[in-house]
Design goal:
53% of the residues are buried. The strands form five sheets. Strands 7-14-8-9-13-10-12-11-15-16 form a ten-stranded mixed β-sheet, with helices on both faces. The chain has a seven-stranded mixed β-sheet with strand order 26-27-23-22-21-28-29, with helices on both faces. A hairpin with a 4-residue loop joins strand 8 (239-242) and strand 9 (247-252). The chain is α/β, with parallel strands linked by helices and 804 residues long. The protein is globular and about 90 Å long. It has 22 helices and 29 strands. Among the domains are: 19-104, Alpha-Beta Plaits; 203-392, Alpha-Beta Complex (DHBP synthase); 540-552 and 571-741, ATPase, nucleotide binding domain (Nucleotidyltransferase, domain 5). Helix 17 (637-647) crosses helix 18.
Length: 804
């Protein structure tokens, strides 16, 4: 700063006394090159002082002229590194120290952790250029990374984020890496996963030959495990490949035999496999890719993106083929692009010998178990699935499956929120005291929360397997470590048989446990992610397959007038018996027959579900329904989708969750213009009682119309489309009644059924046309993967634990 004298006099610059400020930056500021950024910025501006990592975030003490400090503060958040997310910047004036220069100090680990660990990030452009440059010393290095990319969450063991507190601590840096790490002008300045061919992790290829597994971990001189793996894949092998968050099972996606063999070995049924392509152009003839999908595919997360298949793919000359066995009957292809250097190497760099151009990349696990991360376990547990293992010696601290996302109405819709997003927190509109919510038993994701932040775990899996329960426990301990949250309150689903609830019950340790109704949690999850505060009730439309109801039945087609404090059941799908529980879920024809009987429609031999049900089973089912044996009533919209899918002849047996509903949506998407009449649910007043709904939707008229269309020879795609339209129209009528009676104008669409984009988009459009504000999930999945977020907020309110 200078003081200008009067015109004509001699100008003299008067020095301004230096001031010193302690600045604390909170957010995702560790593991993303923030300290090097602060060092570079301070040095450029001529400021002195130091910067360090602490449990609170990044703390810098900077000293210099006040105007320069002001510029430093402005640029601190505006020019932050690409992976950084600056939430708050707090400053405090302190006494000047008279430093010379600016330094990065060792991290201070004392005190509770309050910083945020960055998710894993895809290989950046600068690292990719090094990977492909024969003149670069990291040419073809499978583990190259920098402060802008590479592993973070999956290798961190504690906070603050330093190499000694990651699984890279076992790899001493070579002299050249050490110089880069210590050079403020280098892109790898304080990059904790820094490595190279000389000092980094080592790849190792194992085959089914037992002798392979007793060899030293380092490859023989001249050996190239990646080239050998590409050769095996080209020959039709299935290889277990160790990635960022676990093992993938990989094969050539154009090889019918290899894909069918993987499907058989994994007992996959018809469940679609995910696909990895080198470039978007490799699949452009197979799918529709808009600007939003392209941004997801090529961005720093690189999740699996569900892309709608083209009706009549016309491959360009030279385009790679795709086996029909990759995603049979699915309207979508799940596609991702390479996100690690190893992936790029597997797909081949320029000049490499030809190999597979499209790879099946599916989670390396046995059906129902969590993804494998441990090397010895991979060899043991995947022995009957893989022909070879491409592994390495960098440990994975925490499993993290690939995220699955689609674009709906121009915005992301999560199917699975995991790698690249976990453990980034979701902001809460109502602050809570430290809490843990254990989620549900399917697609389990748990949640830790404190204050205005909720940290959702990576995808855990289905809790009916003991290995998944152990994985849950390890992941919960790890997330407590990296967030610093020590729960004082627990929340769980009300279902008495849920293993997630039993775990919470066994781990209360004197802490209160709040049981939250399943669909209330779904609705609260949608409210919380949209920032709704107290006193803003919504019309919650919760459609899914299974949720434990207040009357001990199975709910799943619910309209709840809800806020965080409670709910009232305004609407429900009419109860029908669910004969045989999980058996009926796996055999949609049984659900169709139960619905037909409830609707008073005869089991005529020409109806598809009647023909699909073996005669002996049909006779037993009739007696079971007549005598009400092992028949729990259900109001599930998911089970109604199953029933109509079978009734229309689309899907009679489900090899994976929601297969029948997905196939019904796929059929509806191929329907053209509909010149005929639609279907309509009957609405009637509900019975009285504590769990009774005001309005009950009876599907009997819809089922009668479907049977009529079948007998008239109406095309199955039209039947499927008419059913989707009928459900959307039902929601519209329910919400109109709720607005008239309760004066509510905000609708939350939630539950796994709303992963169906045809239904969700149609329903949202109709509601908006009627003047409603529509909330759809954008930060967490609408399925049970988002359940824990709602449990946290409801439990905090129920226990009176919200911070006022």
């Amino acid at each position: 700063m200078t003081i200008r004298q009067a015109e004509g006099s001699t100008a003299t610059a008067l020095p301004t006394a230096a001031v010193r400020r302690r600045i604390t930056v909170r957010g995702v500021v560790q593991g993303v090159g923030f300290r090097p950024f602060v060092h570079t910025l301070a040095t450029e501006l001529g400021l002195t002082g130091h910067v360090t990592n602490t449990g609170e975030g990044v703390v810098a003490e900077v000293e210099g002229a006040p105007a320069t400090l002001a510029r430093f503060g402005e640029r601190l958040s505006g020019e932050a590194p690409p992976l950084a997310v600056v939430e708050t910047v707090d400053g405090q004036d302190i006494a000047p120290a008279g430093d010379t220069g600016f330094r990065i100090l060792p991290s201070r680990a004392h005190g509770p952790s309050r910083t945020l660990v960055a998710p894993d990030a895809a290989t950046c452009a600068a690292c990719l250029a090094e990977l492909t440059d024969p003149a670069d010393r990291r040419h073809r290095h499978p583990f190259l990374s920098c402060t802008h990319c590479g592993p973070r969450f999956t290798i961190v063991t504690a906070i603050p984020y330093d190499r000694a507190l990651t699984t890279m601590d076992r790899f001493p840096m070579c002299p050249r890496c050490a110089r880069e790490y210590a050079d403020p002008g280098d892109r790898r300045f304080h990059a904790q996963p820094i490595a190279c061919h000389d000092c980094g992790p080592r790849l190792r290829l194992l085959t089914a030959d037992p002798a392979d597994r007793t060899r030293p971990p380092l490859p023989a001189p001249g050996a190239d495990p990646v080239a050998d793996t590409r050769r095996l894949l080209a020959e039709g092998a299935i290889v277990a490949v160790k990635g960022l968050g676990g093992y993938h099972l990989v094969c050539d996606a154009s090889d019918d035999t290899a894909v069918a063999l993987l499907r058989h070995r994994k007992a996959r049924g018809d469940k679609p496999f995910a696909l990895m392509a080198r470039h978007i152009d490799e699949v452009a003839h197979l799918v529709r890719v808009g600007a939003e999908e392209r941004a997801l595919l090529t961005g720093p997360v690189r999740p699996i993106v569900l892309l709608r298949r083209t009706t009549h793919p016309a491959p360009a000359p030279g385009a790679p083929a795709l086996s029909d066995a990759v995603a049979p009957g699915s309207p979508d292809l799940g596609v991702m692009l390479p996100y690690t250097p190893l992936h790029h190497l597997l797909l081949g760099l320029p000049g490499d010998s030809p190999g597979p151009r499209l790879l099946v990349m599916t989670s390396g696990n046995v059906a129902g178990e969590p993804i494998v991360t441990d090397d010895d376990e991979a060899v043991r547990r995947l022995a009957h699935l893989a022909d070879a293992w491409l592994t390495h010696d960098r440990p994975i601290r925490i499993p993290c499956d690939d995220s699955v996302v689609r674009i709906s109405d121009g915005e992301p819709l999560f199917v699975r929120r995991s790698r690249g997003y976990a453990p980034f927190p979701v902001p809460l509109p109502v602050p809570v005291r430290p809490a843990l919510a254990t989620g549900g038993d399917l697609k389990n994701v748990f949640c830790l929360a404190e204050g205005h932040r909720a940290w959702l775990s990576a995808h855990i899996g289905d809790m009916d397997d003991v290995a998944t329960q152990f994985a849950f426990e390890r992941a919960e301990e790890h997330l407590e470590t990296v967030t610093g949250v020590r729960p004082q309150l627990l929340a769980a689903d009300r279902h008495p048989g849920y293993r997630s609830g039993r775990w919470a019950q066994c781990h209360t340790d004197g802490r209160p446990l709040v049981r939250v109704q399943h669909h209330h949690a779904h609705i609260a999850s949608a409210m919380a992610e949209h920032g709704l505060r107290d006193g803003h009730p919504v019309i919650g439309v919760a459609f899914d397959g299974t949720g434990y109801g207040d009357d001990h039945t199975i709910w799943g087609g619910e309209i709840l007038l809800a806020d965080y404090d409670g709910y009232r059941r305004f609407g429900q799908l009419a109860y029908v018996p669910l004969p045989g529980g999980d058996t009926t879920v796996r055999r949609p024809y049984r659900m169709a027959l139960a619905h037909l009987r409830a609707a008073g429609i005869d089991w005529a031999a020409e109806l598809p579900p009647v023909a699909a049900c073996p005669p002996d089973e049909r006779r037993l089912l009739a007696r079971q329904l007549e005598r009400d044996l092992n028949c729990v009533p259900t109001s599930s919209m998911g089970r109604l989708f199953d029933a109509v899918s079978s009734l229309a002849g689309v899907c009679h047996r489900a090899g994976y969750e929601a297969q029948a509903a997905i196939a019904l949506e796929a059929a509806a998407l191929t329907a053209g213009e509909d010149p005929g009449p639609g279907y309509t649910f009957a609405l009637r007043a509900g019975r009285t009682g504590p769990a009774a709904a005001d309005l009950v939707a009876d599907p009997a008229p819809v089922l009668t119309a479907v049977v009529g269309d079948l007998r008239a020879g109406t095309a199955v795609p039209l039947i499927a489309a008419r059913f989707h339209t009928a459900v959307a129209d039902l929601v519209r009528r329910w919400c109109a009644s709720a607005r008239e009676r309760a004066g509510l104008t905000t609708v939350a669409l939630t539950g796994g059924v709303f992963a169906n984009t045809l239904l969700a988009e149609t329903t949202a459009r109709l509601l908006r046309e009627d003047g409603f504000t529509v909330l759809r999930h954008r930060r967490v999945p609408p399925n049970d993967g988002g359940l824990a977020l709602g449990q946290i907020v409801v439990a905090a309110r129920t226990a009176g634990a919200a911070v006022r």
